[in-house]
Amino acid sequence: MRAVFVQASVAAAVAAIAYFFVHNSLENLERLNVKTGFQFLARPAGFGITQHLIPYDEDSSYGRAFLVALLNTLLVSAISVVLATIIGFTVGLARLSRNWLVAKLATAYVETIRNVPLLLHLFFWYFAVLRPLPGPRQSVVFGGVAFLNNRGLYLPAPILEPGFAAIPIALLVAGLATGALVWWSRRTRLRTGRHHSVIWYAIVLLIGLPFVADVLAGFPIGWDIPRLAGFNFQGGVVVIHEFVALTVGLSIYSAAYVAEIVRAGVLAVPKGQVEAARSLGLRPGQVNRLVVVPQALRVIVPPLTSQYLNLTKNSSLAAAIAYPEIMLVFAGTVLNQTGQPFEVMTITMAVYLGLSLIISLVMNWYNRRITLKERTS
Amino acid sequence: MTSRWIVAAGFACAVLPGLAAAATLDDVKARGALHCGTAPNIPGYAFTDDKGDRRGFDIDLCKAMAAAIFGDANKFKLTPVGPRDAFAALQTAAVDILTHRFTWTYNRDAGSGLNFTRVMFYDGQGFMVRKSLNVKSVNELNGASICVGQGTTTELNIADYFRSHSMKYTIVTFADLDEARRAYDEGRCDSWSNDRGSLAARGLGLKNRDDHVILPETISKEPIAPMVRQGDSQWEDIARWTFDALIAAEELGITSANVDELKAKSENPEIKRLLGVTDDLGQKNGLPASWAYDAIKQVGNYGEIFERHLGPKTRLGMSRGQNALWTNGGMMMAPPFR
Amino acid sequence: MSAPAAAATIARPPEAARGVLAWLQQNLFASPLNTLLTLASLYLLYIMAPPLLDWGIFGASWLGSSSSDCPNRETACWVFVRARFSNIVYGSYPIAERWRADIVFAVAAAIFGLLVLPRLPGKLWIGLAALVVVPAVSSIFLAGGVFGLRSVETTLWGGLMLTLVVAVWTIVTSIPIGLLLALGRRSSYPLVRALCVAFIELWRGVPLISVLFMAAIMFPLFLPRGVEFDKLLRALVAFSLFNAAYMAEVFRGGLQAIPKGQYEAAQALGLGYWRMTGLVVLPQAIRIVIPGIVNTCIGIFKETTLVLVIGLFDFLATVQTGVSDPAWLIGDHIRVTGYFFVGLGFWVFCFGMSRYSQRLDRQLAAGKAYE
Q1: In what order do the strands lie in the sheet with A152-155?
Q2: A341-370 vs B2-10: helix axis angle to the nearest 10?
Q3: Range(s) for CATH 3.40.190.10 in chain B?
Q4: How far off is chain A from B140, nearest CA to CA, in Å?
């Protein structure tokens, strides 16, 4: 009875708030002067974007501009998550190092980075990346095919010719074969206790097969090498500095948090576990790999998930340093040009929400896999 | 609370109440202060001085309005707004007028429930390049990379111009205009593009301004005009005629220094009408007879405002150009006060 | 060494290594890898320290009052910070009324000082006063309009003062809301639980900057016609709800750590839900969550830089506007100096909080050991 009453009153309160907002919005709607809707997504955008992973030009629609921006957000988030994890684990372990200087430097890293707003980090890295680089005409050349200057890093772009399909097919076959090998090795180990290393077979398969396919198909990949034309390099693919600075800034900032999470996780593993592992005769590497890390991970993964969420959301600060992600392109230029803030902001927030939910789902799945399987009472 | 966002999504095809028929002047008088929307941060137009006072060309336009309405140029409140939220702020009556650097365009005027008052500054988009590039014209910028600050028309102007001239370009868009300049300064781009007024002002922050030059072409028309809500023509009249009065004052040679003297002694019938000596022009708009006098006395005429914040004696050092009076070859002309 | 001799002498414990050299040997050069790491770290310091010191201290411009006193463009211009210091601290708060802000600063500093003292009778009460009474009274005091104080529009508030106001109010309001949400998330009522989960995940799933855009652009639409909502208040609501979701997750961790037996024991004693929560669960949970709360507070403090989005001039924004004052537009070094100063300012506050949290952590851990 009480439960019904409490829930009914909560529902009533929420409904009242909802009604209040709906009512006001409707009333405000009546005085509408502006015709709006989602039709603008099909209209031509008319502006350029520096980095697009899918074909895009000024004739493309606002909808496509949105897609380009979304992919850019995904790209920088994915790479930064990986880098932040690597740096974070390194620094976190360095803080526990027995070398006094290393431990102190790692502590200094965490305390300096964590206590300054991310925006300032991004400014710092952007101009730290730009400043030392030469102009296009004085580019640093790598083997005559790659060029580094203050406009970006220009790399040769692959041009796919007919017959190219053989390579991905070979790669797929190699992948499947490797999978089968790993599965076989694992099964034999579990059954017989004998360990067969498959890593070398895997490497030979994964590199060899595509190479053979490449030769047999008559080298179907051509390379578009960037060349200096006028002010800048044309052709090839370019890695823009905005991307580099954002990735570096975001990774280093988030790594400070990851480091703390890792440290706490490792410290949470009881000392007895390490001592027991050592007395079993495990080598230090094995102690870490087989005993410490699996137990620490259980403590690390939940807060790490939040950190990944934060990193993805923090990529929205990239607008300040011109990396064309969602907040800059869509909630910026598109919003300003179309003058439809409500639609644009709704879509933008829905996108971030969706990303967050996906990350949460993946990490929760991983977390379930590594949690301690306790007996159920 | 969830429902709040669902509502938001549901009504995405919506919005913006124009608080149309309400008499803005009555609201402003009752409140005792004029609410102006200005840019947070543009050198010369809207900035904060060392003491924390907000100053600039746009701010003075707001002050002139406050003086005309209340006889006191300090009865105003500033709300810093950007291109994202400025129009919404005006439409929802958070501000009474936008004295901001917004370009008068058809779509904004016709489609958004807002009206432009009158052009207070003629501008156009220009380009700055390093002198060492030896570029003399925008048309030589084929293949160049261009740094810009996010605006409402900036990116499109460049795209239109370069494409219509069959030239390639790479645009690097920054959310903040100062960061665009800084990236250009560090060599990220061959050129930096913005309204010419903004190039002149923000260009002072370059490491070495003398190494750079503004190219002669202006690739767009940017008539900058303060904005009010649609549907209150009295309020629109007050704003437009107050600004006209500032220009008329310059035409008639009335300055903040000599306005008292002219009010007492001048025999010029138009001066007498404007300053409320012979005719009560203000009353027809619900303002005191001294409305124009107060604005000129406390803020100065158009020329004075320009000189104070933008002119050759300031660090911005801009010449009047198109913003000179029509009698001096410019485009500033006030309709007759009669 | 012969076997009998070894048997004859009683093995003594290794001598405790003392002195500088021993310390160095143990901590820096214990192994080849350690030595390598040490040398690499020293080299890093050697490369980074001298230019930074030269830029910020030895070569910097310290004296004067205008941009012409900063001729060297390669080094810091502290003159800028000095000249605009009052703007950076108070924003556009009227000069004649700044004593009010000074009093608030002094009270805040005094309370913080008291809280840092290790053993203080009635610390809990002081803490509560700091969290509830002081922010409320200070805000009224700053806003004025009562007791003969001149009213000061919140649009004029700015600088460090505004940053502190936003941070403190957000912290003070998000903690209780977060607690309620966390309790709601563990509620036995499915509807309450679902609503709390949805609320928390919704806020945690979107960037704060987009929430602030919403507050700036869309919020007026939800209100009845003619109702105006102070900008600062709008920012505070957005900040508070957003961070309440984070606080809720911190509390959830604490609540989950309470053994089930505690709940069962409380129920067996016949305690109702609120008494069980208030008397048994929370006192234990709060101890666990304090470090997490302080970390969230540090996050809140840094996030305040986003209020510029809705047109408020915080600590960072006052420096940014300062840089755009034509009087200071003389080159890039002014801007770099300004940003460096802001970074330093944030660092001091956040590092302080971080240290405080570590101390609490140790104190609480120690307290636990005595039980």
Answers
A1: A140-142, A146-149, A152-155, A237-239
A2: 130
A3: 19-122+224-323, 125-220
A4: 10
Domains in chain C with CATH codes: 78-93+152-370 (1.10.3720.10)
Q: State the CB neighbour count (10 A cutoff) for residue A12.
A: 10
CA distance C25 to chain A (A): 10
Single-letter amino acid code for the residue at A92: G
- Interface contact flag, C30 A24, Cβ < 8 Å: no
Q: Which residue from C202, C216, C220 is facing B2, i.e. has the nearest CB?
A: C202
Query: What sections of chain B are H helices per DSSP?
Result: 2-10, 24-31, 57-70, 86-91, 106-111, 154-164, 177-185, 196-202, 233-252, 259-265, 269-274, 291-299, 302-309
User: How far apart are alpha carbons C77 and C94 in whole angstroms?
Assistant: 26
* Residue B156 C-beta-side C-alpha neighbours within 13 Å: 15
Token pair for A347: 């879509």
What is the ipTM score, two decimals?
Answer: 0.81
CATH class for domain B19-122+224-323?
Answer: alpha beta
Q: Nearest-CA residue of chain B relative to C312?
A: B80
Residue A334: which residues within 8 A CB-CB, separation 6 or more?
A45, A62, A65, A66, A344
CA angle C198/C204/C205 to nearest 5° reads 85
Mean pLDDT is highest, among C45-59, C273-287, C296-310, for C296-310
| Assigned CATH topology for domain B125-220 | D-Maltodextrin-Binding Protein; domain 2 (3.40.190)
User: Smallest Cα–Cα separation from B155: which of A243, C321, A237, A338?
Assistant: A338
List all chains that touch chain C, counting a touch as 3 or more CB pairs closer than 8 Å: A, B
pLDDT in tens, A54-89: 889 888 999 999 999 999 999 999 999 999 999 999
pLDDT exceeds cutoff 90 at B120: yes
B196 has a chain C CB within 8 A of its CB: no
C-alpha to C-alpha distance for A69 and A58, rounded to whole angstroms: 14
